[in-house]
């Protein structure tokens, strides 16, 4: 009789993370129990530990029979991410973690604590293939997609950290390394695990989960059709194609009008306001006329279902570009608002530890 290797025991190829409990949906978890000779109900029990208590070590799951713990650990809890270092700033309110995956790949996540909420900025890929010239991650190219579990486990660790401090992780932004919509299926599965209530997920409110994209138009539409209500953020950075072709090279494939049409489709389908990211760069995209054009285009495409988030550029090492002077930034905000589009400036955390937007590029150990 031909025997097929159970999926959970497949040896990982280099670069392909081993299957982990957090990769599996409810059916997959039950099937995996069968494969290791445990009754299906154990799947929910383990899920309650992982998603409800943020416990990832089966040896600590003391309501499992002792002889099952080791088996579960070996089959379903391979070590995925090991923290290489934690660096804090902003009086300990911002913490960047450098992670090493089992194949040596490096990636980062950033935890930001505010009064009454805590936001984790997570990576969806190691590196990024989008090559935006102002972004540190974009300079190094794409190493590989992260697996669903590698994405989910960044969240679990931060949730455990917050719980240990008597608090809670409330918000997730896919604004770390990588382009989430270029790793669509794994990111979508991760979003489900992050938002579904325990035992299927961490139960973080959909509205508090933001997926940020360079403007991968077809996948924005696909995401709109999934029946989720996560917040969509589109990194526009300029309203005209000529400059956007340079700042966000994927614009050569999906131009501004296509991206805004897809954003409108997202807003229509989900009823959610779309967030537009705009890194303000001195003398590059901070002109008065661009602010006017941005406001006009957004108002036309999205009406009142849009909000602009200005991010003062965080200059990356060796970059000739800089943030706009405060006066020009204020004028930009004023002009966008004058077109009927709400516009605010993002508070930039983590500057001094290279944990601010676009600075995430693992430099090594
Ligand atoms: N690939 C996704 C997530 C990237 S990071 C995306 O492009 O949306 C999240 C945001 O930080 C994006 O809007 C990105 O353009 C922005 N960003 C990148 N580098 C930056 C920098 N040096 N200064 C300010 N914002 C930057």
From TrEMBL:
Organism the protein comes from: Corynebacterium lactis RW2-5
Function: Specifically methylates position 2 of adenine 2503 in 23S rRNA and position 2 of adenine 37 in tRNAs.
GO BP field: rRNA base methylation; tRNA methylation
Keyword line: 4Fe-4S, Cytoplasm, Disulfide bond, Iron, Iron-sulfur, Metal-binding, Methyltransferase, rRNA processing, S-adenosyl-L-methionine, Transferase, tRNA processing
GO molecular function: 4 iron, 4 sulfur cluster binding; metal ion binding; rRNA (adenine(2503)-C2-)-methyltransferase activity; rRNA binding; tRNA (adenine(37)-C2)-methyltransferase activity; tRNA binding
Primary residence: cytoplasm
Protein name: Probable dual-specificity RNA methyltransferase RlmN
Required cofactor(s): [4Fe-4S] cluster
Keyword Ligase recorded: no
InterPro entries: Aldolase_TIM, Elp3/MiaA/NifB-like_rSAM, Methyltransferase_A, RlmN_N, RNA_MTrfase_RlmN, rRNA_lsu_MTrfase_RlmN/Cfr, rSAM, rSAM_sf
Residues reported to bind [4Fe-4S] cluster: 128, 132, 135
């Amino acid at each position: 009789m031909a025997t097929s290797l159970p999926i959970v025991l497949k040896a990982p190829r280099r670069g392909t993370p081993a299957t982990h409990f957090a990769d599996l949906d409810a059916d997959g978890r039950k099937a995996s129990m069968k494969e290791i000779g445990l009754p299906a109900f154990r799947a929910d029990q383990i899920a309650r530990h992982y998603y409800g208590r943020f416990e990832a070590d089966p040896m600590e799951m003391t309501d499992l029979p002792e002889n099952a713990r080791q088996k579960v650990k070996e089959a379903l809890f391979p070590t995925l991410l090991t923290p290489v270092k934690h660096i804090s700033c902003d009086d300990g309110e911002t913490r960047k973690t450098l992670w090493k995956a089992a194949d040596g790949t490096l990636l980062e996540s950033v935890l930001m604590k505010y009064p009454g909420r805590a936001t984790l900025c997570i990576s969806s890929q190691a590196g990024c293939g989008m090559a935006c010239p102002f972004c540190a991650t974009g300079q190094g190219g794409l190493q590989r997609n992260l697996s669903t579990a590698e994405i989910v486990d960044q969240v679990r660790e931060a949730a455990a950290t917050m719980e240990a401090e008597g608090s809670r992780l409330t918000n997730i932004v896919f604004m770390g390394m990588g382009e989430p919509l270029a790793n669509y299926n794994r990111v979508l599965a991760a979003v489900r695990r992050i938002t579904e209530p325990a035992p299927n997920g961490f139960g973080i409110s959909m509205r508090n989960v933001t997926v940020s994209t360079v403007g991968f138009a077809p996948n924005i539409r696909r995401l709109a059709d999934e029946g989720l209500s996560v917040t969509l953020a589109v990194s526009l950075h300029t309203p005209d194609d000529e400059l956007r072709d340079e700042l966000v090279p994927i614009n050569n494939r999906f131009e501004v009008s296509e991206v805004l049409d897809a954003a409108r489709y997202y807003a229509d389908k989900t009823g959610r306001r779309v967030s537009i990211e705009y890194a303000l760069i001195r003398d590059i995209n901070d002109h008065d006329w661009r602010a006017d054009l941005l406001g006009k285009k957004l108002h036309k495409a999205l009406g009142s279902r849009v909000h602009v988030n200005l991010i003062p550029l965080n200059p990356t090492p060796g970059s000739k570009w800089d943030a706009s002077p405060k006066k020009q930034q204020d004028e930009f905000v004023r002009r966008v608002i004058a077109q009927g589009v709400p516009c605010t400036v993002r508070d930039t955390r983590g500057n001094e530890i290279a944990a601010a937007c676009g600075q995430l590029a693992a430099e090594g150990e």
